[in-house]
Structure formats: structure tokens, C-alpha cells
Design a protein that fits this description.
Elements: E1 2-3, H1 10-22, E2 39-40, E3 44-45, H2 46-60, E4 68-70, H3 75-82, H4 88-103, E5 108-114, E6 132-144, E7 151-160
Helix pairs in contact: 1-4, 3-4
């Protein structure tokens, strides 16, 4: 079922774009396979997002890290990627910022993982580490302007450490 129920408001988009620009110094963008450019809006398809989430959770099964949690408060970032407002690099930076705020720690890693059909799905070794204590994620389907086809991404935020973590509500948008 395709619909645009997850498309963020103009105010949310402007706030998130500002945050993405402010966090441009976060590392990790170089490892993305997509260009750092805004995209073309893609209709939300919850079945495709559910399949992408399953691929991610299945890939982590048997790993030694924390159990992943589909995080609703990461969805505005995924929706902005899907709406073509954020590039994959900006979504990566916004995810890192979200993680630091949500978990109130600097011990955060963020990734935008490729779950596009036909591409090998690779989980970073650091994500499977026993030192990972929390994993939050949100799937998105998007299309960079220079791409002819829709892409699949999982925005992932992980907390490292040996301590218990508590999540707090964060409103980036």
C-alpha cells in the first residue's frame, strides 16, 4: 500500500535540514555508496519497509551485540530521506545527532546501511560487538537525483559501552 503518511511537514523538514547542516562534521559519510545529494520523493510502502526491517533484524540474529529496536522517533529522519529532502549523508549525520541526544551519550555510532535488493547486505563488525548496548533503526526507501532506481536504506544508531542506557524523548523536528 503506497501513501505519503510519513512525509514530514515543511517546518519539520526545515528543522531537520538545519540540524543536518550543523552536524556536517560527523564522520562516516565517506563510506556511503550513494551521492551526497537530495533525492526524488518516493511513496511510502510499509510492506517494503517491513521487509527491509526483517532483513536487518535477521542479519543481526546470532550476533553478539544488542537486540535491534525499530525506533519510531528515528522515522522523521527516514521520512525526510524518503521525501527527497535529505541525502543519505545528511540522514547519517542526523541519525548520529539523534542518537547522542536520545541516549545522552557521545558513545554513539550511526550508519546508513544498503538494503537494496541485488546488493549484498553487510552489517558493520562494530555493530555486532559485545560492547554495543543498544541498537535503534528505521528503514527508508529513497532515490537520489542521479539514480535511475529506488534504493533501500536502514538508518542505524548504536550505543557502545558496558553500562545500561536509557532512552529519552528527542524532538529533532
Amino acid at each position: 500500500m503506497n501513501h505519503l503518511s510519513r512525509v514530514p511537514s515543511t517546518t519539520q523538514v526545515l528543522r531537520l535540514a538545519t540540524l543536518a547542516l550543523l552536524t556536517a562534521s560527523l564522520e562516516g559519510c565517506a563510506s556511503l555508496r550513494w551521492p551526497d545529494e537530495p533525492g526524488v520523493p518516493v511513496l511510502a510502502n510499509h510492506d517494503d519497509d517491513a521487509r527491509a526491517a526483517k532483513v536487518f533484524v535477521d542479519a543481526l540474529a546470532g550476533g553478539h551485540g544488542a537486540a535491534p529496536k525499530l525506533e519510531r522517533s528515528l522515522e522523521p529522519i527516514a521520512a525526510s530521506l524518503q521525501a527527497g529532502v535529505l541525502s543519505a549523508g545528511e540522514a547519517l549525520r542526523a541519525g548520529g545527532l539523534w542518537g547522542g541526544e536520545a541516549y545522552a551519550t557521545d558513545d554513539v555510532d550511526a550508519w546508513v546501511l544498503d538494503c537494496t535488493v541485488g546488493h549484498p547486505f553487510e552489517v558493520p563488525k562494530r555493530l555486532l560487538s559485545a560492547k554495543t548496548v543498544a541498537i535503534s533503526f528505521a528503514p527508508a526507501h529513497f532515490r537520489p537525483q542521479s539514480s535511475a532506481t529506488e534504493q533501500c536504506a536502514i538508518i542505524v544508531v548504536a550505543v557502545r559501552g558496558s553500562h545500561d542506557v536509557a532512552m529519552r524523548a528527542v524532538d529533532l523536528l
